[in-house]
Amino acid sequence: MIHKITIPLYHEEVAPRFDMATEVLILILSKGNIIEEEKTIILPRSSADDLCHLMLAEKTNTLICGAIEEEYYQFLKWKKIAVYDSIAGNWSRAFHCWNKNILKSGY
């Protein structure tokens, strides 16, 4: 099974706010959570609506992000996307913690 993780970025860090990100990293994982592909998408403007649309189009399974408004959090959960919010720091560290099953919202 392929698993896709979306991480809004600010340089190499998880973007502090979901709705202000203009750069998004999508990790495509194969069996064993091995990264098969990393793709970075630059959005023309920051927009939570556009980011949600992108995640649905990409068939994202998991979102790792900073602050996110309740409306978008609930929408993504309703769409069966696992949301880890209030995450700060380097995206690769956040992914490592997710992969070890120790990432928690607010980490």
Can you tell me about this structure?
By secondary structure, this protein is of the alpha/beta class. The chain has a single domain (3-99), classed as 2-Layer Sandwich (Nucleotidyltransferase, domain 5), CATH 3.30.420.130. The protein has helices spanning 48-57, 70-78, 91-99, and strands spanning 3-10, 13-14, 23-30, 34-42, 62-64, 82-84. Strands 1, 2, 3, 4, 5 and 6 form a six-stranded mixed β-sheet that branches. A hairpin with a 3-residue loop joins β3 (23-30) and β4 (34-42). The mean pLDDT is 95.
The number of helical runs is 3
User: Poorly predicted ranges (pLDDT <50, ≥5 residues)?
Assistant: none
Q: Mind telling me the C-alpha Rg?
A: 12 Å
- C-alpha geometry: globular
* Total number of domains: 1
- Helicity, in percent? 25-40%
- Based on the coordinates given, report the CATH architecture: 2-Layer Sandwich
Amount of beta strand: 25-35%
SSE succession? EEEEHEHEH
For CATH, the homologous superfamily is named as Dinitrogenase iron-molybdenum cofactor biosynthesis domain
CATH topology: Nucleotidyltransferase, domain 5
Using the coordinates above, name the CATH class. Answer: Alpha Beta
Alpha-beta content class: alpha/beta
Mean of residue pLDDT values = 95
Task: Note the gap between the termini.
Answer: 27 Å
Number of strands: 6
Main β-sheet description: 6 strands, mixed
Which tags fit this structure?
107 residues; alpha/beta; Nucleotidyltransferase, domain 5; 3 helices; 6 strands; globular
In short:
With 107 residues, this protein is an alpha/beta fold. It has helices spanning 48-57, 70-78, 91-99, and strands spanning 3-10, 13-14, 23-30, 34-42, 62-64, 82-84.
